[in-house]
Every structure is written in C-alpha cells, then in structure tokens.
Design a protein that fits this description.
By secondary structure, the protein is of the alpha+beta class. The chain has 1 helix and 2 strands; from the N terminus they run H-E-E. It has one helix spanning about 20-30; strands at about 45, 50-55. A two-stranded antiparallel sheet has the order 1-2. It is globular and about 35 Å long. It starts with 17 loop residues before the first helix and ends in a 7-residue tail after the last strand. Pfam families: ChlI.
Length: about 60
C-alpha cells in the first residue's frame, strides 16, 4: 500500500494525518464495514499504542 502525502516538498509535523490514514487503511482492508461519508472529517490522532486521542487546543 502506498500513501501519498503531496506535495513532497512540504514538511509534515505532528500526528495530524495519522487517524485519517489509519481509517483509510482499515476501510480498504475491509476491516471497517460501515460506509464513511465523503464529507466526513476526523479530528484526533493515534498514540503509539494505537489509542485514538482527542486533539488538545493550545490555551496559551
């Protein structure tokens, strides 16, 4: 499986894409049976053990 995050010149910081990539992999491998709406958004990230965590707002 190839996951393309283009443009390649743009540096990616943080876990922002992890959850959506994981959901895409699970859906393409038919581990998720339910349909995912094309206008759905997922906000969160994966910890190193695979736990889904909420994004924390920076309150500075």
């Amino acid at each position: 499986m190839v996951i393309n995050l283009s443009p390649a010149e743009q540096k990616r910081n943080g876990p922002l894409f992890d959850l959506s990539i994981a959901l895409g992999v699970l859906k393409s491998g038919e581990f998720l049976k339910d349909d995912i709406s094309t206008d759905a958004g997922f906000i969160g990230y994966l910890s190193l053990d695979g736990t889904i965590l909420a994004m924390q707002e920076n309150c500075n």
